[in-house]
Amino acid sequence: MAGDGSVWRLVGPLAELSQRRCRLLHSSFGRGSDVCLFYLQGRFSAMDARCAHSGGPLCDGDIEEADGVLQVFCPWHDYDFDIQTGKSQTGLQQQVHSVKVEDGNVYVKHASLLSLEPFPPASKS
């Protein structure tokens, strides 16, 4: 376990997750901890789903390759982020997460539970 509480989280089968370029993984911690899972050029990568600039939804952004670097562009203000490193030409840094494929399943290293479906709202006691 990493110092931040991150552990390998099963997110789903390789056969399903490799069918789309980007999927939103919902976090049990709430929207601010959601993750974008990318599948591009035969490999997975993951980063926080909310733009470090002002919280735009990166999973809705355009994905482009420039000079051999795959980037996602925030749909709100067009900030760019390298999908592998999370670095932006603006100087911002997006949090990236390790991804592994094992026994036909995809895992993301994260502190919260991750799901392809939203978690039910927490009940107020």
TrEMBL record:
InterPro entries: Rieske_2Fe-2S (IPR017941), Rieske_2Fe-2S_sf (IPR036922), Sol_Rieske_ferrdox_dom (IPR054716). It holds the Pfam family Rieske_4. GO terms for molecular function: 2 iron, 2 sulfur cluster binding; metal ion binding. The keyword Heme does not apply. Residues 8-108 form the Rieske domain. It comes from the Eukaryota. Keywords: 2Fe-2S, Iron, Iron-sulfur, Metal-binding. This is Si:ch211-212d10.2. The lineage of its organism: Eukaryota, Metazoa, Chordata, Craniata, Vertebrata.
